[in-house]
Amino acid sequence: MNMLPILLKREFWEHRKTFFYLPLIILVLSAFFLIAVVGSVQIAGGDIIVSGSVQMNEEGLHHRSETNEYSNMPVNALFGEQVSQFALLAEDQRERMLNSAYLLIATPLVPVLWVVVFMYFLTCLYDERKDRSILFWKSMPVSDAMTVIAKLMTGLVVVPAIYFMAMMLLQLILFLTTVVVALGYSVDTWQTFVVPANIMTRWLQMTAFFVFVASWCLPFFAWLIFVSSWARSVPLAWVIGIPILLVMLEALFTQGEWLRAFIKEHSFPGGLISRLAGGVGDMFQQLLSVEFLVSLVLAALLLYGAVYFRGKADEL
Amino acid sequence: MSIVVQAQGVSKRYGGFAALEDINFTIQKGSIVGLIGPNGAGKTTTLKALLGLTDFEGQLNVLGHDPRTGRHHVMEHVCFVADVGILPRWLSVGEALDYVEGVHPRFNRQKAEALLAETNIRNYRQKVKQLSKGMVTQLHLALVMAIDVELLVLDEPTLGLDILYRKAFYDRLLNDYFDHETSIIISTHQVEEIESLLSHLLFIDQGRIVLDSAMDELANAFTEVWVEPDQVAAAEALQPIHVRDLLGRKCMIFEGANPASLADLGELHVPSVADLFVAKLQKNQGQQRGQS
Fold this sequence. Notes:
The structure holds 2 protein chains of 2 kinds.
Chain A: H1 4-14, H2 16-44, H3 48-59, H4 62-69, H5 75-88, H6 91-106, H7 109-123, H8 127-130, H9 134-137, H10 144-183, H11 189-197, H12 199-216, H13 218-230, H14 235-253, H15 258-267, H16 280-287, H17 290-312
Chain B: E1 3-14, E2 17-28, E3 32-36, H1 43-51, E4 57-62, H2 71-74, E5 78-81, H3 93-103, H4 109-117, H5 133-145, E6 151-155, H6 163-177, E7 183-188, H7 191-194, E8 200-205, E9 208-214, H8 215-221, E10 222-227, H9 232-237, E11 242-246, E12 249-255, H10 259-262, E13 266-269, H11 273-291
Parallel strand pairs in B: 3-7, 3-8, 5-6, 6-7
Antiparallel strand pairs in B: 1-2, 1-4, 8-9, 10-12, 10-13, 11-12
């Protein structure tokens, strides 16, 4: 009987707030913000003087200068002019600007995803011991190995996939917004906004990047699960404390920095960016390196340890 | 009869404290075993060891598996209800049904829903943390009773529940659930409550088994005598394991004595399990003190 789907569901039920509602809220807020920025300029439209005078009464002189600056120019004309100017830019410039916009709209979800996955792995085998529910979970015919695999899959695949979908949705909203706006002006919508958005390539690259980060940071995630499986209190202290101690010992006795660099590069996706300057090709090159092989072996050992301690685990 | 559980020399230490010391017992198929002992005697530890929920030393065989290495195999045939709620607080009733249905090949969902229909639980969207203590136990029992298992392990299942519910619980256990193919082991420190449904007794005290007997052998092994006032000295000479006062008379319990030889001392009775429990415990604790 393949019980993986129900085990993944069970993880989702427990963490509905951070796995689903949190990205949903960020998605809605970001989309709202995007549409508000574009929409306010569009809707304010016809008579800037009216809205300007209202603002002036409420907030004083600050807005008067702004109002004066554009006082002769209806906003839709201003926006239209910007759209037209954008259409006149060179293609690579447009691509660069759009690229920034697409990255920017998805950016808030990335650190949130990292924190959510971090906290999930850190507590996935600790909380069940603390609240005694381990006695219920272990009274079901689910092996410890299966439990650990389900938890690894949750943090490595399920949660990133949900956040990834939220990012894609946001970029799709941005895409549709630019297209709808462009249709209102006399520009070539296809050449101006659709082609340089590279939406399909972008998503393929993002997927590749996610797969790469998930594999690259595997020892880090395995380390979190491992600590979570045996720590009797404050798993966070062990998760941070032991690597710091090891790095200090390394510096003290070997004067080396290999471990320090290894930990740094495999913990935070940020540390990877420099390695990936060449794009997708670089990723696969990294995945064939000896260092990556070492990290996989390390991850496997840590996961094996987590299964072992789950087997011994009792309520706290 | 086949053996469901066999424990040989099972010990468990927490630091310097011996929670279990050289525990030996067997559970036969179709028996209802009462594991009876005061708080802290090692009841929960014994049950957790045979479920593979805690580590131990010695040999334990549960349905052909060592629970330390084959817990998930054991759990296909064994169910467990703990003394206090162990269902996670965030789980909803419907999710609990979905989960057990998904992971347990012997779970019958219709049966669980029928059992739940007889409880106060109506809303499947309710979470465990919104249920009262009694309702959480009812939910857990409904889940467990809908699983076709060979051994049911109940650790103080009615602790903290009111008397009406406790009575109904044991009635249902005996009438609806127990079918002589299943074995049940129940731990409790309230003997009277389950005395009538047991087929076998295990007394545990300070990590040791102090009595291991079938219920129908108790009458042969133990005799209670309401001693006549003039026979007290003669009775005490026969070394009763327990003496108490009852309506101005001495009431003594003898172990392994021939009833015929006791008949002259006074009225003979079969001791109640509760009195026997007190007798064995006092004897054991006296021995423990004597040793130390």
